[in-house]
Amino acid sequence: MTRTLVVAGHGMVGHRVVQALRERDRTGSWRIVVLAEESRPAYDRVALSSYVDGWRADDLTLPGAEFADDELVELRLGDPVRRVDRAARTVVTSAGVEHRYDALVLATGSRPFVPPVPGHDLPGCHVYRTIEDLDGIRADTGSSAVGVVVGGGLLGLEAANALRLLGVDTHVVELAPRLMPLQVDEGGGALLRRQVERLGLTVHCGVSTKEVVAGPDGRVGAVRLADGSTLDADLVVFSAGIRPRDDLAAAAGLAIGERGGVVVDDGCRTADPHVYAVGECACLDGRVYGLVGPGYAMAEVVADRLLGGAATFPGADLSTKLKLLGVDVASFGDAHAVTDRALEVVHNDPISGSYKKLVVSDDARTLLGGVLVGDASGYALLRPLVGRPLPADPGALVAPSGGAGVGVGVGALPDDAQVCSCHAVTKATIADAITGGGCADVAAIKGCTKAGTGCGSCVPMLRQLLADCGVEQSSALCEHFDHSRAELFEIARSTGIRTFSQLIERHGRGRGCDICKPTVASVLASLGGGHVLDGEQAALQDTNDHFLANIQRNGTYSVVPRIPGGEITAEKLIVIGEVAKDFGLYTKITGAQRIDLLGATVDQLPKIWRRLVDAGFESGHAYGKALRTVKSCVGTTWCRYGVQDSVSLAIELELRYRGLRAPHKLKSAVSGCARECAEARGKDFGIIATEQGWNLYVGGNGGFTPRHAELLVSDVDAAELIRLIDRFLMFYVRTADRLQRTATWIEAMDGGLDHLRAVIVDDSLGICAELESAMARHVAGYADEWRGVLDDPDKLARFSSFVNAPGTPDATISFREERGQRVPVSLGIPEVVRQ
Amino acid sequence: MTAIQERVWTPVCRHADLLPERGAAALLPLGVQVALFRTHDGQVHALANVDPFSGAAVLSRGIVGDRAGRQVVVSPIYKQAFDLRSGECLDDPAVSVEVYPARVVDDVVQVCSP
Ligand code: SRM
Ligand SMILES: Cc1cc2nc3c(=O)[nH]c(=O)nc-3n(C[C@H](O)[C@H](O)[C@H](O)COP(=O)(O)OP(=O)(O)OC[C@H]3O[C@@H](n4cnc5c(N)ncnc54)[C@H](O)[C@@H]3O)c2cc1C
Ligand code: SF4
Ligand code: FES
């Protein structure tokens, strides 16, 4: 017999109830009627703020939200439930339609709390919960509007950011003495405030809103605060907390919690066995959960109960990790140290913008909770440790580089600790999948346990667990090749194979992927494969190499012309300026002595490069795993301390190695004396002038793990120097792994730097002549990639926005102004932590 | 909810305009952007062009290949793989992109949209 379930409310949790029930109810024993107040199917409210980023409601669509092909689900939009008659087991909607139910799930969510200050309902006052709310806010924001957000919690800050992106001059008013009072403590709040103010928002903490005052037009004109000050304002957004929508239940005589919410048991059932409540309208053990994760868990419980199961909702902790206005914020466990005699261990570094607090038991042995602001990388490891013995001294755990990343290994976690909090996977489950289930890499663990498939922050721990379990990480490039990059290089070199199809047919399997295709493309390029977009090679390149430009977050590209050694004439600077002006590009001096032009669309790239090439510029390969720049200092030509002509050498080197494709990017610099103004020791190969000649350093980099380059040879002349660099680079190109920079390559080498010196200085393997001639071929074969495109109509044809409408601009790209230049309209979407 | 929807086939380009194992973007009526792919076997597939993880309209510019036997395109921004047939994201099965029926008639690629 088919029974009828009525779901009141089609928000995120109501939707999950339907999905979960339809997934489990194989025999179709329930017919579902969803009665929704909003005029559109459930959407991703958590990502609501990203709506500002293009105003496309479709982007918030939840998969399957319309139940289009499901005969058993009837979705009725825009007609809310008005009344529940528990005796008759019916609900009546606003339009007067009556539905009978065997079970009723209340999933009515919550409403924004609007403090009843005078003027709170003037035109120009808004709340922040639905797509329509945001449309309303947008309609009220003129060009130079001033906005006041009442409430400095999570949602208030999101609202403030939305206003900021709309170009509104924004104030945040928070009653508590700090921002995000629920999640962070005073120290964290202070740091957060500084970061938020840096974005141009004005913050008023510890003061309440007294009144919204009407202007002459009867709309919002100003906001008066309790401290007597007045903020002129054109609009107000109230974001001062939420209240469960429990009125239906209350009117039907069901119990309501002290602070609101429909009272339910751990099966999410009210006192009436036919009525359930889930999500933000439910109150369990006196608690209402304002996060989507616990709501989803409740939805699963109800689906199970409806099919006769006995699942229970165990309660959820309110640990969260989010990115708010670009700042990482995490809080977990007893963040406010309310546990009796709890101790707080704090590391506060305002300079680097990081605040870390651990709350521990009075003997400093057990972790109780914590707050991380600015650098929340320790969250994944610390959160599962709550309530457990600390693996190290708490001071060491919050110290700068100790973080939780280095100080504590995943090995320190107990077996039942959650490693992946998105999918609630414990260390034991993962270890089991590795040792018992035979998972030999991260991908296999993902498939088998779901760990790592949410926010991804636990993936480094998965890798560590693999290593701890003694699984040797295979050197196979990917599922298509059992070989490493170095082995593939040797295969291609010795067999003469020069196409990907041949290589994968004879030495691999399948059709290739985003890992092996660009790797093989790089190998073929190093072996003199012609233009990177020739023939089949074009399909192997990732988007940067395919469009010879660097992709940016909004799908536009950046253009970086080569400026060898950082030396540039006034004429060329003017050309860059004119091109930027004519195409409306954002310009920035990069960290590597050149100029980045950002915001170009695919179809603009050839037009921009036509102008640049005509003025004598060429590709700077900022997009490639290739030589980037050779930085220089002014050297003897100008500097009173210089002992060699560093600029001339830098230019010579940059022109010699330009276009060289490598396992990773390559950077270099030349300094004119030991003062080292060009930072040569931070480069893959760096040269420092001496009275007698040049010192060559190798294996340096900045980036994630900075390393100083080490001295390979000293006081050599220019000819010897270049010979050694030729050998060094070719040896690296042939033998390094994919994405392995020179430092890690040397480190991984048996014998390290000494071995390298033996090979390329003393020629211990007898390969130096060959390495040199390979480099000579590269130098002779160099041609500017961009000129190659401009001269070839077939290649040019690919630079169009749409195959069927080449001139039409991509409507998803929009810009706003910042400091007089165009920058993309974009918004940090908060990470959802599913629990 | 069952609804009957009108569908239209829009001709977008010649089959030969598409490079094997590479994508191209096309514009459908009402401004809908699709990413078109021609796989090694000559078939064409169309997915929504907007990458759900970044919001950028770039899926057409991803690398085409296979993963565990499924034909995929990999987003050029954060590298998630999407099944060319179902639109499902292999790295996060809770996420998927719209699939549009695509066919080749007399060397002309056509895409179907609501
Ligand atoms: C534009 C620029 C920042 C700036 O405005 O100054 C920049 C921008 C990017 N860097 Fe950088 N890096 C830039 C100088 C640097 C420097 C400084 C330098 O070169 O002197 C470093 C540290 C030095 C070093 O590389 O050792 C640097 C270390 C990185 C790293 C970390 C590398 C590492 O080994 O840890 C990455 C990530 C990577 O390559 O995998 C990276 C990656 C990137 C990427 C390509 C990220 C991406 O995939 O989108 C950025 C986009 C480039 C673009 O133009 O769209 N960038 N990046 C600089 C371009 C320099 C140029 O003219 O080519
Ligand atoms: C801007 C913003 C950012 C957020 N960020 C996060 C985050 O990062 N992480 C996180 O975990 N959570 C976040 N949340 C909270 C999250 O969105 C909610 O926890 C979640 O949406 C709750 O789902 P729900 O179904 O219980 O309620 P809702 O999504 O509010 O859905 C309830 C639905 O019921 C309808 N309804 C009400 N009464 C009736 C009636 N009588 N009849 C019919 N329908 C009715 C309402 O119109 C609504 O559509 C955020 C919320 C907002 C607004
Ligand atoms: S490195 Fe030496 S020569 Fe170059 S600018 Fe600095 S002090 Fe002058
Ligand atoms: S913690 Fe594992 S994916 Fe988020």
From TrEMBL, chain A:
Record's keyword annotation contains Nucleotidyltransferase: no
Domain NADH-rubredoxin oxidoreductase C-terminal, first and last residues per copy: 319-383
UniProt keyword Protein transport, yes or no: no
Keywords per UniProt: 2Fe-2S, 4Fe-4S, FAD, Flavoprotein, Heme, Iron, Iron-sulfur, Metal-binding, Nitrate assimilation, Oxidoreductase, Thioether bond
First and last residue of the signal peptide: none
Span of domain BFD-like [2Fe-2S]-binding: 419-467
Domain Nitrite/sulphite reductase 4Fe-4S: 624-760
Annotated cofactor note: Binds 1 siroheme per subunit. Binds 1 [4Fe-4S] cluster per subunit.
CDD domains reported in the protein's UniProt record: NirB_Fer2_BFD-like_1, NirB_Fer2_BFD-like_2
Matching InterPro entries: BFD-like_2Fe2S-bd_dom, BFD-like_2Fe2S-bd_dom_sf, FAD/NAD-bd_sf, FAD/NAD-binding_dom, FAD/NAD-linked_Rdtase_dimer_sf, NasD-like, NiRdtase/SiRdtase_haem-b_fer, Nit/Sulf_reduc_fer-like_dom_sf
GO process annotations (BP): energy derivation by oxidation of organic compounds; nitrate assimilation
Quaternary structure and partners: Homodimer which associates with NirD.
Functional summary from the UniProt entry: Catalyzes the reduction of sulfite to sulfide, a step in the biosynthesis of sulfur-containing amino acids and cofactors.
Family membership: Belongs to the nitrite and sulfite reductase 4Fe-4S domain family.
Entry protein name: assimilatory sulfite reductase (ferredoxin)
Organism: Solihabitans fulvus
Gene: nirB
TrEMBL record, chain B:
Gene3D superfamilies to which the protein is assigned, alphabetical: Rieske [2Fe-2S] iron-sulphur domain
UniProt keyword Oxidoreductase, yes or no: yes
Nuclease among keywords: no
GO terms of biological process kind: nitrate assimilation
Regions annotated as coiled coil: none
Domain Rieske: 10-111
Pfam families in UniProt: Rieske_2 (PF13806)
Key words of the record: 2Fe-2S, Iron, Iron-sulfur, Metal-binding, Nitrate assimilation, Oxidoreductase
GO molecular function terms noted in the UniProt entry: 2 iron, 2 sulfur cluster binding; metal ion binding; monooxygenase activity; nitrite reductase [NAD(P)H] activity; oxidoreductase activity, acting on paired donors, with incorporation or reduction of molecular oxygen
Official protein name in the record: Nitrite reductase small subunit NirD
